[in-house]
Every structure is written in structure tokens, then in C-alpha cells.
Amino acid sequence: MAGYGQHKEDIIRRLRRIEGQVRGVQRMVDEDVYCIDVLTQVSAINAALQSCAVALLDEHLSCCVTEAIAQGGDQAKEKVNEASKAIARLIRT
């Protein structure tokens, strides 16, 4: 089971909202809406994606990583390393 299993519906709801926002931006471009207005919506989409990513990361840390650490060994090191790389990717975006 994925670490976000208990909050899967919330994650899906967020992603569907983001999907709708992207479709809205496509429509704005089709309709030749002013550039700054389109960029404002793109910024909102980026913020929503970032928020969703942080929620997923939080679930991963509190479930998958915590369980691996409790078990110890190489799996714990691997999960912590994996989480660290995911955080680094999020920071770069």
C-alpha cells in the first residue's frame, strides 16, 4: 500500500482541481487572454502542484520512512536517501 493510501481521495481531488486549472489555462491561451493573466494562472498551478507534492512527501515520511527506520538496516538507509533525493528535486523546481 502506498504511504498516501489513507489520504488518496484528497490527493486525487487536488490533482483533479489542478487538471481543471490547466484546462482553464489552455482555454485562456486559445482565447488570447492577456499574457500576465495567463502567467498568474500558471503560477497558481505551480503552487498547487508544489502543495500536492509536499503533502505526498509528508505522507511518505510519516509512513514509509518511519516504518523503514523502525525496522532498521539497509532499508532504513535506502528510504531516508530516497526521501532526501525527492526533497532535493522539489527544492530545484
Précis, in short:
Helices cover 86% and strands 0% of the residues. The chain is an all-alpha fold and 93 residues long. α1 packs antiparallel against α2 and α2 (35-71) runs antiparallel to α3 (73-92).
Number of helices: 3
Radius of gyration: 17 Å
What does the average pLDDT come to? 93
The strand count comes to 0
| Proportion of residues in β-strands | under 5%
Per the principal axes of the C-alpha atoms, what is the gross shape? elongated
Taking the sheet with the most strands, its summary is:
none
| Helix and strand run | HHH
Residues in helices, as a percent range? over 70%
Question: What structural class is derived from the secondary structure elements?
Answer: mainly alpha
Protein name: Metal-sensitive transcriptional regulator
Family: Belongs to the CsoR family.
Keywords: Copper
Pfam families: Trns_repr_metal
Structure characterization notes:
- The protein is an all-alpha fold and 93 residues long.
- It is built from three helices and no strands.
- The protein has helices at 8-30, 35-71, 73-92.
- α1 packs antiparallel against α2 (35-71).
- The two termini are 27 Å apart.
What is the topological layout?
Layout: H1 8-30, H2 35-71, H3 73-92
Helix pairs in contact: 1-2, 2-3
Give the tags.
93 residues; Metal-sensitive transcriptional regulator; mainly alpha; 3 helices; 0% strand; Metal_Tscrpt_repr_sf; copper; Metal_Tscrpt_repr
